[in-house]
Design a protein that fits this description.
Layout (H helix, E strand, L loop, with lengths): L1 H12 L4 E3 L17 E6 L15 H7 L7 E3 L5 E3 L2 E6 L5 E6 L13 H12 L15 E8 L2 E6 L32 E7 L3 E6 L12 E6 L3 H9 L5 E5 L1 H5 L5 E7 L3 E6 L9 H10 L2 H9 L4 E2 L24 H10 L7 E7 L3 H15 L4 E7 L1 H10 L5 E6 L6 H5 L16 H11 L4 H17 L3 E6 L1 E7 L2 E2 L15 E2 L2
Parallel strand pairs: 2-11, 2-12, 16-17, 16-18
Antiparallel strand pairs: 1-13, 3-4, 5-6, 6-8, 7-8, 9-10, 10-11, 12-20, 13-20, 14-18, 14-19, 15-19, 21-22
Helix pairs in contact: 6-8, 7-9, 12-13
């Protein structure tokens, strides 16, 4: 398996060199071939009810909207922050004042000019925890004052230095006076929103007024396949040209006119445990489950050995924060697991449920292997498949679950984005993790102005999660992308994103 992990690491570094699919013949009838300036992308879930990027919560929705919206800065495939809405900026010597210069001539998709006032309104909206339905960004609360001396200049002064602050300015800049962002979103990105048909499709078109290099593609249609079985059928029937996040089994059955590009998903897949319900409110039970699960065997059985084992809420693409030693904290040991269960008052095990979104076959496959492994220590796990909308409402928002298999990503390129969610008071702490020591570490990280010091604290937070077995951490999943032959330019990012602006059809 180490060879396979190395191969995947090389694939990520080399920007996803494609490898061959399984070579099975596609069934007839076939959909017509795409036009040279169009692309059809398959996705495994419908988008959130709102398309306002300040309100969305699902990683899959953000993956689509990545092509429609931009912040003052944006990420590059190499993990750097590069100019976007702001063409340049300066930071004062005391690290408190950022002066951004809005790009000359940049417009929103309705043709209206982007001003410093729009950027100020967008950031203040995200910084306000009282803003209705907005997923407030706590890091932006560090903004002490906002000034717009002219339409092209934005001055942000912080209450205290923040090494990560710039990373949060990837948040979308929106027009301040626009009221229909939920249903007819307007951004500054290379593609503009055209239409959406719920549970069927989303259509984007190239924005010819884009400030940067124009995409080669003129039109993109996202086709929604919420039934896992329909994904492969859609690919084989020629209904799509690109489909990300496939299982190894699906990739092996791609038709001959497709390739499988390999990278990482840049997320933390785990068996997430509701720490507020019995028996998962007992750390010994949670630790027992960690010992009971054999991650290497899971990767072999469900993923043909592909995937990167992790031991806490951090994935390897965040190199300086990632602690590889945590992946070895709980070596597979059924006797140790049984002893901990007995000590916690469950000598004969117990029954539990694993709620899993049915449209994500990799998570379903993972849950099935986990159930078999847990049975070896007397834990009877019933798998409860649910539709994606129900998972969001009941599990993520309602916290009405015992355990779930899912992948958690970072909305931007910061360790804070992955770790803040487990602070006791965090609104997105869906596992109900409560640790006074963890909360104190997070507070210390936010007042650490030295990058090395802050990095060390974040690594302590990761160890806290691992030692307290907040969840059963599994892997950063291999990202297998079905790519129709002739489609070029696919790039992988260190965040959960699919950039369509670099794609083109070879002549």
């Amino acid at each position: 398996m180490r060879k396979k992990l190395l191969a995947l690491a090389l694939a990520l570094v080399c920007a996803a060199l494609p490898g061959c699919g399984g070579g099975t013949q596609a069934p007839a009838p076939q959909d017509p071939a795409p036009a040279s300036n169009e692309l059809r992308v398959g996705i495994a879930q419908d988008l959130d009810d709102t398309l306002d990027p300040h309100k969305t919560v699902a990683a899959g929705t953000r993956e689509v909207l990545f092509n429609v919206f931009e912040g003052l800065v944006k990420p590059s495939p190499e993990g750097e922050l590069i100019p976007a809405v702001a063409e340049s900026w300066e930071l004062s010597d005391d690290h408190l004042t950022y002066t951004f210069h809005i790009r000359q001539g940049i417009t929103f998709h309705d043709g209206s000019p982007v001003t410093a006032g729009d950027a100020a309104w967008s950031l203040l909206r995200l910084a306000d925890p009282q803003e209705a339905d907005v997923a407030a960004v706590a890091a932006l609360s560090a903004i002490a004052s906002v000034e717009t001396p002219d339409a092209a200049t934005l001055v942000l002064t912080l209450s205290e230095p923040s090494p990560e602050f710039l990373s949060y300015l990837t948040a979308a800049v929106l027009p301040a006076d626009y009221a229909d962002q939920d249903t007819q979103p307007i951004g500054t990105g290379p593609f503009r929103f055209v239409s959406r048909t719920a549970q069927e499709s989303v259509i984007l078109e190239r924005y010819d007024g884009y400030w940067g290099d124009l995409p080669a593609l003129e039109r993109v249609t996202y086709r929604i396949f919420e039934n896992a079985d329909s994904i492969l059928l859609g690919i084989q029937a020629g209904a799509v040209d690109l489909f990300a996040h496939l299982t190894r089994t699906q990739a092996a059955q791609l038709p001959e006119d497709f390739l499988a590009a390999e990278g990482y998903m840049n997320l933390v897949q785990a068996l997430y445990l509701n720490n507020a319900v019995e028996p998962f409110n007992d750390v010994r039970v949670r630790q027992a489950l960690c010992y009971a699960v054999d991650v290497d065997a899971l990767l072999d059985l469900a993923f043909d050995g592909y995937g990167f084992p992790i031991g806490s809420s951090m994935y390897p693409a965040f190199g300086k924060y990632y602690d590889p030693s945590l992946a070895d904290l709980y070596p597979h040991d059924t006797e140790k697991a049984k002893a901990l269960l007995a000590e916690a008052g469950y000598p004969d095990g117990f029954s539990m449920t694993i709620t899993v979104p049915s449209n994500y076959q990799p998570h379903v496959d993972t849950a099935q292997v986990l159930a078999a492994q847990l049975e070896e220590v007397g834990v009877q796990a019933e798998i409860v498949p649910v539709e994606w909308g129900a998972w969001l409402e009941d599990v993520y928002q309602g916290r009405n679950f015992e355990s779930t298999v899912i992948g958690v990503d970072a909305a931007n390129m910061t360790a804070r984005a992955l770790l803040e969610r487990f602070v006791s008071t965090a609104g997105n702490n869906f596992i109900n993790y409560h640790s006074a020591a963890y909360d104190a570490l997070f507070a210390a990280a936010q007042s650490a102005y030295d990058d090395a010091e802050q990095t060390a604290i974040y690594r302590e937070m990761e160890r806290n999660l691992a030692e307290n077995a907040a969840n059963v951490y599994l892997q950063d999943m291999a990202d297998l992308v079905a790519v129709r032959k002739g489609l070029q330019g696919l790039q992988f990012y260190p965040i959960y994103a699919l950039d369509l602006s670099t794609l083109y059809w070879a002549e």
